[in-house]
Write a structure and sequence with these properties.
The complex is a heterodimer. Chain A is mostly helical. Chain A is 53% helix and 2% strand. The longest helix of chain A has 17 residues, at 177-193. In chain B, the strands form twelve sheets. Chain B has a five-stranded parallel sheet. Chain B has a five-stranded parallel sheet with strand order 20-27-21-22-23. Classes of the chains: A mainly alpha, B alpha/beta. Chain A binds chain B through residues 5-13, 16, 31, 33-34, 36-37, 56-57, 60-61, 63-64, 66, 69, and chain B through 391-392, 434, 436, 454, 457-458, 461, 463, 465-466, 485, 487-495. β1 of chain A pairs parallel with β26 of chain B, so a sheet runs across the interface.
Chain lengths: 197, 665
């Protein structure tokens, strides 16, 4: 993907995606326009040093309807959801909820954020739960390494974890898998009705 | 005089920190003529003043030196105390050992020596002081207001409602000023015309107000309570007494295509015109520069159609003299001009914004006329170039303001708010349009102001971009605005249909000339200076002259009205007395020695020196001498310094006193 981080913004009613602003506001339940860029969120963010766009700039980009710039960055995936920003914001902007909403939107859009494997990890994580009713770490690690193309990633940790019993070679299925399935189908149901994001 | 008391103040620690006050008191006791000396922590406090009064009685003091702060600070306090103790107040003098000594020195020994010297000088002066009696002058209870904008109107109505006569002078053919040009006003969005025009009518109908429109101040003479003003009434070419304001002349005038200045040249007017339909007075004026009759003598239609026969081509400029006791200056502002050679300014405008040559780049007042229901478009917002409705409008704040390079380092104060208002007005009229604002800071202090600005963003969806615009240029029928969003850190480019520049507020052209006529001070921008920024914000340093509105500095309507009412209150305070007491520090001519060269008359800045004829008993003229009118003299001492025969002396500052002071050193 082209690095759009520093390229010029051409603002017009066409390039400012108002629908995106409304979507984020609806999903997060927080106003985006209210932010006046004091920078307090970025000042207290523990993950700021890992982010390409600081949290305040994320809000600013949403205000300008720049959805591609927001979703292409890695910031939303590095957010630890610690909610420091939301707690301290002088304007009651719930930035943690906005970050959540952005991750959701990125997921749905099959995000332009390919540089981050967080989304892949999240997907595999949920799939495992769907399939086994619980987490199967060995499979998660193996499939993640294969799909992300990093075959040897953290390989040397394996034996250690195995010997301490933190990692199982074979999965053990949840006995009440039907219940888990019910949860997933209920959420699907709600989504269809529009009650869940 | 040989019974002098010296009172030395510690001023908390302000003086005693660097000056050994006890040592100064000790030294003072040794000075010739000093009977009593003491020091005290706060001389100006009630116990301090009591101490002074007691000492006067106990030691039968005949003169007082208070060694403390500047006489500008507390001279009045101590002179009142001296008077209460039964002394003539002008026998009390202050030795400034704070501003002139303790505050500016570190070395305790040297500072103490200097303080002693200062005290000694003042003791010598007081020894030769004479009792002075305050001069009383009559007060003419009539006020002159210069400028008929909202400030002048408010001040005029307040003073007139109090029962005093008011003379209101306005340069333009109608009163109303800039406020009459505005569409709606922040932060309540009420229509400017609706709140303004009734007040204008109040002015013209008020029995106590004399209105001179299309007039200018020619000259100002006199002093507080007794000003004599010469007003030049420019030839209107229409007899105001006969004209009924029917408007037939304006309809029939063949010259129809003269740009209307009131509409910022967006609309047209005839050569005989009223600036706007609600004008007060509703009497037309002939613009002699554009009138065919005055250009080649070949028209005269207006005179033929005028029923009452009010049109008078022969009318001449007229000089009127008015006697007033107080003056309120309310001359208002103009907007910064971005053209290459702004009128009356050496500083170039904004080349990067097209020097005013791009038709769709306009200033804030032009936008007001576009948005005004009584404007040239009837309130429809269109582009000046092709009359199309703009769908993307970019507003740029701080054009000229806070730009040292343009010679203006101040904030124009109203632009943040009126730009927020403009975005709202635009959104209310063009629902599918988008407003963008480039701003450096949003300054919205004021009641309900910040909420108003936030409303523009949160509810009216104006896009505010922090960062100054670098360039504006024409591209096809669009105007491209290049800026930067410093919150994102990237460049921003907008292809706009219309660009509105919030240009800086400057004093009116000719503000400096008027100030020179009035004898009031002004700053480097030509804004008039108040006597004290905090404690005397509506008074000039020149007594009897007061300030109201944007002529003193950029101001919004609420602030302007407040200041105008405050100035009116000051005028009413002055008018509450029949006689005015003035300090008797005035020059006196010793007629025995005066040779009548009248060099003093030439140098007197206040016009206080007159010629006086000395005659014998038969009425034969012996010689002419100078005479200083004590009512006019301001006690500057220039005549004393000029007089070649040493026959002029300033009371309280005689040559003898000054020499005695110097001899102590």
């Amino acid at each position: 993907m082209k690095n759009i981080k520093n390229t010029k913004m051409e603002l017009s009613q066409e390039t400012m995606n108002v629908g995106f602003i409304k979507k984020v506001e609806a999903l997060s339940g927080s106003s985006v326009r209210r932010c006046f860029q004091c920078g307090k969120c970025s000042a207290g963010c523990p993950m700021r040093s890992f982010m390409d766009h600081p949290p305040n700039r994320i809000v600013r980009l949403i205000q300008l309807g720049q959805w591609e710039r927001v979703l292409a960055g890695r910031s939303i995936w590095y957010c630890a959801s610690c909610e420091t920003c939301s707690t301290r914001c002088p304007n009651k902007v719930d930035l943690a909820a906005i970050m959540d909403a952005l991750r959701k939107l990125s997921w749905d859009a099959d995000g332009p954020s390919k540089e981050s494997y967080v989304q892949l990890a999240n997907k595999l994580f949920i799939n495992n739960i769907k399939q086994y009713g619980r987490q199967y770490e060995m499979r998660l690690a193996a499939v993640f390494n294969v799909k992300s193309g990093q075959f040897l990633k953290d390989l040397m940790l394996g034996p250690k974890l195995l010997s301490k019993g933190k990692l199982k070679m074979f999965h053990s299925k949840n006995k009440n898998l039907a219940e888990i399935e019910k949860i997933f189908s209920r959420i699907e149901e709600m989504r269809k009705k529009g009650d869940a994001p | 005089m040989s019974r002098i008391g010296v009172f030395i103040c510690h001023c908390g620690e302000n003086i005693s920190r660097t000056v050994d006050v006890e040592q100064v008191a000790q030294a003072a006791r040794q000075m010739v003529g000093v009977t009593y000396a003491c020091d005290y922590k706060y001389m100006c406090s009630d116990p301090g003043q009591t101490l002074l009064k007691k000492a006067v009685a106990e030691h039968r003091l005949e003169g007082i030196v208070v060694a403390a702060c500047s006489p500008r600070m507390h001279e009045k306090t101590f002179r009142n105390a001296a008077q209460a103790a039964g002394l003539n107040p002008f026998l009390c003098e202050m030795a400034n050992i704070r501003e002139h000594c303790s505050w500016v020195h570190d070395d305790r020994v040297e500072a103490t020596a200097k303080a002693t010297d200062i005290v000694h000088m003042l003791v010598e002066r007081v020894r030769k002081n004479k009792k002075l009696i305050p001069i009383t002058v009559p007060v003419t209870k009539r006020a002159l207001i210069i400028g008929g904008g909202i400030a002048g109107i408010q001040a005029a109505l307040d003073i007139a409602d109090c029962g005093h006569q008011v003379v209101l002078v306005e340069r333009e053919p109608s009163i109303g000023g800039h406020m009459a040009m505005l569409s709606e006003t922040f932060p309540t969005l009420d229509c400017s015309q609706c709140i303004m025009t009734p007040r204008m009518v109040d002015v013209v109908n008020h029995p106590k107000i004399t209105l001179h429109t299309y007039s200018e101040i020619e000259s100002v003479d006199g002093y507080i309570g007794n000003f004599s003003i010469t007003i030049k009434k420019k030839a209107r070419s229409v007899d105001m007494a006969k004209c009924t304001g029917c408007g037939v002349c304006m309809e029939k005038c063949p010259q129809k295509k003269i740009p209307n200045e009131f509409d910022k040249n967006l609309g047209f007017r005839p050569a005989i015109y009223v600036p706007f339909p609600q004008a007060v007075p509703n009497t037309p004026v002939i613009d002699r520069e554009h009138c065919t009759k005055f250009i080649n003598g070949k028209c005269g239609v207006c005179q033929k159609v005028c029923g009452p026969g009010a049109v008078d081509y022969e009318q001449q400029d007229e000089l009127i003299v008015e006697q007033v006791g107080a003056i309120v200056v309310a001359t208002g502002f103009k907007l910064y001009d971005i053209t290459e050679k702004p009128k009356g300014s050496a500083i170039k405008g904004y080349g990067e914004f097209g020097h005013g040559k791009i038709p769709d780049v306009i200033d804030g007042l032009t936008f007001e006329r576009l948005a005004s229901a009584s404007g040239p478009t009837g309130g429809k917002i269109i582009r000046p170039s092709d009359g199309k409705e703009p769908k993307q409008v970019v507003f740029v704040q701080c054009v000229g303001s806070r730009a040292r390079e343009k010679g203006i380092s101040y904030c124009s104060k109203v632009c943040c708010m009126y730009t927020a208002k403009h975005t709202m007005l635009y959104k209310h009229k063009v629902h599918d349009g988008q407003a963008y604002v480039f701003f450096m800071d949003a300054r919205t202090p004021g009641k309900s102001y910040d909420e108003f600005w936030r409303r523009a963003i949160e509810e009216e969806e104006a896009v505010y971009i922090r960062g100054m615009v670098s360039r504006v240029y024409q591209k096809g029928d669009k105007v491209v605005v290049m800026g930067s969003d410093i919150a994102v850190g990237v460049q921003v480019e907008i292809e706009a249909d219309l660009v509105v520049l919030a240009t800086a507020i400057q004093p009116r052209d000719g503000a400096d000339t008027l100030a020179q006529k009035l004898g009031i001070s002004y700053d480097k921008y030509n804004f008039y200076s108040e006597a004290h920024a905090k404690l005397r914000p509506v008074e000039c340093a020149t007594a009897g002259i007061y300030l109201a509105g944007a002529c003193q500095g950029p101001k919004d309507i609420p602030d302007t009205v407040s200041q105008a009412s405050a100035a009116a209150a000051k005028v009413m305070t002055l008018f509450s007395k029949d006689q005015l007491e003035r300090e008797p520090i005035v020059a006196r001519v010793n007629e025995k020695f005066c040779v009548g060269c009248l060099a003093c008359k030439k140098v007197c800045a206040y016009g206080a020196v007159e010629e006086k004829e000395i005659r014998d008993r038969q009425g034969n003229l012996i010689r002419v001498v100078a005479y200083v009118n004590p009512g006019v003299c301001s006690g500057c001492g220039t005549c004393q310094a000029t007089c070649p025969s040493k026959s002029v002396e300033l009371d309280g500052y005689t040559d003898e006193q000054v020499m005695a002071m110097l001899e102590t050193l």
